[in-house]
Automatic annotation (TrEMBL):
It holds the Pfam family Pollen_Ole_e_1. One of its GO terms (cellular component) is cell periphery. This is Pistil-specific extensin-like protein. It comes from the Eukaryota. Keywords: Signal. Transmembrane segments: none annotated. Residues 1-28 form the signal peptide. PANTHER family: OS01G0164075 PROTEIN, OS05G0531200 PROTEIN.
């Protein structure tokens, strides 16, 4: 009994040594080769408890897309325009030398029934309200697809900080376009039917 335990103990010890020999050097070399700051464990870290979870930083760009001069659902007589559900815009940010002149080009959510869209920018380093523009991207209907604001679809709208909006947790800022974006009916002037 005792002998067999000893044998097993010796076998276990040998296995442990082999195991450690196999495991330790790779860890050791990783730590020697890379500065501690760059060391990333291969396995994903367990999710932190909900109370201490910090969402990644992001910037919100939001607004409303309208169909000009059409009396559709939600018509606004002051603007003479109606929300255009399912239309989209693009947020384009032009990086400088520091980013290697990278361009961020992100499509918004499809506008909801109130014409409301949102762009969540997680590439926060690329966001600078002075170098970002909002462009009309797509209309859901050929009956309201002529760019109206901005009228030149190649000239985007500049952004301003939305001081009225409550920034969600983690948001670095909330922005909207200088004015609402609008499509308009084409030459025939026929409006969509919704
Ligand atoms: C918007 O898109 C959804 C899903 O594709 C569709 O069901 C809906 O009819 C569209 N609404 C309008 C007003 O185009
Ligand atoms: C952004 O992407 C859209 C969709 O792919 C494209 O139509 C548009 O030309 C792009 N804009 C820029 C400035 O790259």
């Amino acid at each position: 009994m005792a002998a067999s335990l000893k044998v097993n103990g010796a076998v276990l010890a040998t296995v442990a040594v082999i195991f450690l020999a196999a495991v330790l050097p790779s860890h050791a070399s990783t730590m020697v080769d890379e500065p501690a700051a760059n060391y990333k464990p291969a396995a994903p870290a367990p999710p932190p408890p909900a109370s201490s979870y910090t969402p990644p930083p992001f910037v919100v760009v939001h607004g409303v897309i309208y169909c000009k001069s059409c009396k559709l659902r939600g018509y606004n007589s002051g603007m003479d325009a109606s929300p255009l559900p399912n239309a989209t815009v693009s947020l384009v940010c032009y990086g400088d030398e520091e980013s290697g002149y990278r361009v961020l080009n992100q499509t918004s959510t499809a506008a909801d029934r109130n014409g409301y869209f949102i762009v969540m920018v997680y590439d926060v380093d690329m966001f600078d309200r002075h170098t970002c523009r909002l462009y009309l991207r797509s209309s859901p209907t050929p009956l309201c697809a002529r760019p109206s604001v901005p009228s030149n679809p190649k000239l985007g709208l500049t952004l301003v900080r939305d001081r009225a909006a409550t920034a969600p947790r983690g948001a670095r800022g909330v922005y909207h376009a200088r004015t609402a974006l609008m499509y308009a009916p084409g030459a025939g002037g026929k409006c969509p039917l919704y």
